[in-house]
Structures are given as structure tokens and as C-alpha cells.
Amino acid sequence: MSQAVLERTNSKSFLGVRSKILLLFAVSIFFDMDWVYFNIAWYGNSRLSTMASLLAWAATFLLLFEEMRIQGQALFTLTLRELVIMFIAIAVKVHGSLFGAESNFDFAVGDIRLLLVVYLVIKMSPKRKKILFEYIIELFLLFATIGLIYYLVCVLGLQRLIPHSVIARRGRRNNIIRNQQFYYVFPMGVVLRSGGLYRYCAIFDEPGVLGTISALLYAGSYKGIKKRLRIPVLLIGILTLSTAFYIIIAVFYLWITYTKKMYKTLIAIAGVLIVYGIIYALPNDILLIKTLQEKMLINTLFSRRDTKRFLEYYRAFIAGGGYPLLMGMGKSAHRLINDGTYSYKLILYDYGIIGSILYISLFIQTYLRDRSKEGIVFFLCFMISIFQRPFVYTTFFYPLFVTALSSFNYEADETSEIEEYEAQWQGSEY
Question: Which of 75, 61, 65, 66 is nearest to 122 (CA)?
Fold first, then answer.
């Protein structure tokens, strides 16, 4: 990006409302996620999902017009690395829509918006990427805090104090009676009741989503984001009891310990392992202890992500080989047979060997563009998350990936980029 564009990005005439558009875009990518409760079939209210989709389109076009005004012709000039990224981004979508064994040429309108989002975030200036990343963290904390209130209300048995509805998990009405799997649905948040235990979900359909995002935000904010934002993110992840969260955080700290020679962290990790052993040795007649022990069995982390029905199809898919294995069954093909599987096997099933290589290459090439020496720890954590929550080529996770990597080029200070802008240019006109 040229020096002239960078100067325009930081000038008074491009501040103020500019950051508000970034905020609107950050809100839209949260609400457009497949795992937000009102976008899931069991919720049954398509109006909220439609409104979220319209907001996403409006925010994306506003961001496009904003970047056009900031960058001018530079917005449409791509470096070789950026050309490679966009080629792969398009190739992944075309591959899944046209070349799968059961592809039905479903290149959706949403795919066009995703490609536009990819283009905009890779062309965005480093400073604006950091602002967007801070907005993502702050919105996450807002939604998680609201969800935490609902979670505590349920734990204390005070649900009746707040208007809510009760919906069976994944639309299975018999779950309420037989397995006690259902949601308390509050305004802007849900709490999952599973097997008699309340689970912290915030706006997402399961604790694992909240935990995974917590881990990625914490790892991604290691260098460029101040502690007052990072510590709450860590605490939220701990409360989710998500195995993925604990594994990603463990890998993060092991890497940091190795590279920084932080012996105090090694002592802390040793303490965690001692606690791990104590919990594992406790009698499991208490539901919470039993749940913790089940989640601590690392060898079940990936196996329990696959349902018996999906595994039957997947094994046949692998054994059959040929064109389907090479090119995949097609975009979203797993949805026809999937009843709860969340693992890396879904990518291979949908995209095949070639498509999976393209899929992962998109993130590798993006990392190579914005890489920093310390940013590799976030890249590693992000790649690990794909094993248990594979579909990260979305309008939420890709901007998170890009903006987090960009934040490693900054040093954390007491004043965030957002606060600095608001303090410096308060009252400025657009």
C-alpha cells in the first residue's frame, strides 16, 4: 500500500464515521455466522436470519465504498501475493460448486459476498485491520457478557425472571424428556441444558464455538492488544469447559514458553497438569466432575466429533477412491448425511484431496503475506482449530484470521486504536 494511501487513511477527514462503518461490519460478520442461534434451523425464526443477511450485505457494501474513497485506484491494484490469494479464494468456491462428484452448481450469492469480504480485508490498511480486530474482540466480550448473565441466571434457577422460550436441541423434541438436551432462548443469547448440566453458549449454538473463538482471539491478541481485553477473553473460554479451548491455549503457551524461555509459565503448566490429575482421580458421582473427566480424555477429542452415520459414509468415500476422493463430493455435500459431526473429515468429504489442499493453501498464503515472527503462534492455533471446527473459510473466521495476524505488527499500549481515534478526532465531520 502506498504512503499516500496510508496518509489518507490516518487523516482527519477519514476518521470518525469511518470507524463506525468498521464497527457495523464487525457486527454483521458475527450475526451472519452459521453457528449463531437464530441462523440455525431448530430456532425456527427465519426473520432474524434474513435481517442478519441484509445487514451483512449492507455493511459489506458500505465498507467497499469506504475503502474506495480511502484508497482510490490503489484498491484495485493487486500485488502478486494478493493475486494468488484471490485466485485460491475463487478456486475453492468454484471447485466445490462445479467439480465435486455430486456438485449441483450451487455457487450461491453468499459466496460472492465472501469473496468480496476476502478482497476487502486483504486490501485494508494495517491500522484499519487492527481497529477491526479490536472491534471483533469488544463485540465478542459484549455478547459473551450478556450470555454469562443468562448462564448464571439458569445456574441459580432464576430463569423465570427473564422472558425466554425452551427449544429442543437440533429440533429433536424427544431430547427434552429423554436426554434433557434443550436450550433456554433469551434475547440475544442461549443456555444449553445437556444431561442436567447448564452450558455457557452466549449467542452460539454450543459451548465449543464460544470456546474456540475465545482461544483464537486470545492467541491472536498476544502482542498488539492490551491485557484488559485479553484477560476477559481467557476467562470466558475457561467457563465454556470446551476441550478445544484448553488444547489450543495449551499449545499457545507451550509455544510461547519455548520461544521466550518463560520458566514461570512452565511452572504454571506443571500446576495445571497436577490439577488435571486431581480432577481425573476424583469420584465421578458428581455430574460436573464426570463431565470434566469425559472432556479430559484427549483421545476422544476427535473421535467423539464424528457420528456413526457420517463415519459409515466417510469410510465408504475413502475406500471408493477415484474421482470422488480426488475432487470431493461437492460443497455442503456432508449436510445430506451429517447429524452432528464436526471434524476435519467434513472438508475432505466435501472438497476431496485437491480441494482440501486449496482450502488450507488459502490460509497459508494469507499468512505468508502478513506474517510476522511472533504471528506464527496464532497461525498454528488457527490450524489446530480446523481439526474440530473445520469450516473457517467464512465471512467471520477469515477476517478474524487476517486482522489477528496484522495485530502482531503492533505493540500493545494502554490506549487502543479505537480510543485513540475517538479522543483525537471527537466531533470531527465525515
Answer: 75
